Amino acid sequence: MTESQTQPDETPAVTEVHLRAALDNVPSYVAGKPAVERPGLTVHKLSSNENPYPPLPSVLEVVTRAAGEMNRYPDMNVAALSQAIADEFEVPVGQVACGPGSVGVLAQIIDAFCDAGDEVVFAWRSFEAYPILVALAGATSVMVPVTDQGRHDLPAMAAAVTERTKVVLICTPNNPTGPSVTAPELEEFLAAVPRDVAVVIDEAYVEFVTDEYCPDALTFRRNHPNVIVLRTFSKAYGLAGLRVGYAVAAEPVADALRKTAVPFAVSTMAQLAAIASLTPTAKAELQERVDVLVAERHRVLEALTEQGWDLPDSQANFVWFPVGERAAEFAQFFDEAGLVVRALGTDGVRVSIGEPEANDRVIATAAAWRAER
Ligand SMILES: *Cc1c(COP(=O)(O)O)cnc(C)c1O
Question: Which of its termini does the chain have fewer beta carbons within 10 Å around, N or C?
């Protein structure tokens, strides 16, 4: 121990500095629980919708090489990655803005649009980060309940827009309930919302969508310049730990998002890993994994339906058990079976799709829960 550590800390416990009052309204993010070891049991972490597969060797190699340069700052403009994204989706590079995960980009969006008292409309239950980011900006969350099938109620969301609404967030597929909005629904919604309100379409799980009625938000941007498409490398691309996401938006908006970005927030490793993930070979390899996860989602949902569960459709890499008040108990039951899952309040429990043996255990544990009740 050093000298200073042995001294009692004499810093006064009270301080007179003025923290922003808005912080009092910020809910804490409850992250997915880490996996706890259980002797004799392989524990599966199914609580954060992560990709269960390890990084692609080609991506890992690029990151390992880049790690040797961590004494250098990253490219603040994220130029090469923005260009790679622009090429991939055939949009002008000026419409691409990157950030540290799409949560980071969403913070940039809220910062760019919201002053204190402005309103942000989104569905609830939806992504836990939304009310946090809105409250941090001193803005007001207007939460519109999802339907009993866990779907966005887009007409009600359109009706919730007021003159104070700056942003609407649409999470499709919706985390944690699973369904996607449909293209006709979205078209109708965009026609109903004033064109000076930004509509963020959070497509964190778009790569897992198989329903042909689901929109590709990028195509909606052509007729609706107020649409901001938000995507991430965290889920299908398996780079959650590296923190990189992006928005595609009208050029003045993309410019604004570069202004509200924390400088140097996207590391060199993250930038290079994302670029390496967009090469044709990597894309093909990643697609194989996505195909397996989607097939597993179908298998899990079918098995659960056979057991008698009535779960919402999922277009993502997770399923939602709307068990209400029993959410904590249900999650504990899974925990004891070596499955770390995510209870969300008294609404339900979200279970990520993992490797086949993890999913087998999910199916068996869900059956055991029914048998015991
Ligand atoms: C996981 C997730 C994200 C992605 O977060 P990152 O910051 O990119 O890791 C964004 N939106 C939703 C709805 C999510 O579930």
Answer: N
- Nearest protein Cα to ligand 1, atom 3: 204
Sort 118 into a burial class: Cβ within 10 Å, 0-12 / 13-18 / 19+: middle
98 lines ligand 1 (CB under 6 A): no
Residue of 30, 98, 105, 127 to mutate, ligand 1, most atoms within 8 A of C-beta: 127
Distance from C-alpha of 88 to C-alpha of 310, rounded to nearest angstrom: 38
Write out pLDDT tens, residues 166-198.
999 999 999 999 999 999 999 999 999 999 999
Q: Is the CB of 103 under 6 A from ligand 1?
A: yes
C-alpha of 321 from chain center: 19
Q: Which comes out higher in pLDDT, residue 86 or 41?
A: 86
Q: How far is the CA of 12 from the centre of ligand 1 (A)?
A: 39
The pLDDT tens digits for 91-138 are 999 999 999 999 999 999 999 999 999 999 999 999 999 999 999 999
Q: Is 330 in the pocket of ligand 1 (CB under 6 A)?
A: no
Angle at 139 between CA 94 and CA 159, to 5 degrees: 85
- Given the candidates 3.40.50.2300, 3.90.230.10, 3.40.50.2000, 3.40.640.10, the CATH classification of the domain at 57-278 is 3.40.640.10
Extents of the domains making up the chain: 27-53+282-372, 57-278
Calpha distance 142→160 (Å, rounded):
8
215 or 115: which carries more pLDDT confidence? 115
Q: How many whole angstroms separate alpha carbon 294 and alpha carbon 208?
A: 6
Name the residue at shortest CA distance from atom 15 of ligand 1. Answer: 175
pLDDT per position as a tens digit, 297-312: 999 999 999 999 999 9
Compute, in angstroms, the gap from residue 327 CA to the centroid of ligand 1: 22
Tell how far the Cα of 232 is from the centroid of ligand 1, in angstroms: 7
Give per-residue pLDDT as tens, 322-337: 999 999 999 999 999 9
Name the class of domain 27-53+282-372. alpha beta
Question: What pLDDT is stored for residue 151 in this prediction?
Answer: 98
Tell the residue nearest (CA) to atom 2 of ligand 1.
Answer: 204
C-alpha to C-alpha distance for 235 and 18, rounded to whole angstroms: 38
Region of poorest pLDDT, from 4-18, 22-36, 165-179? 4-18
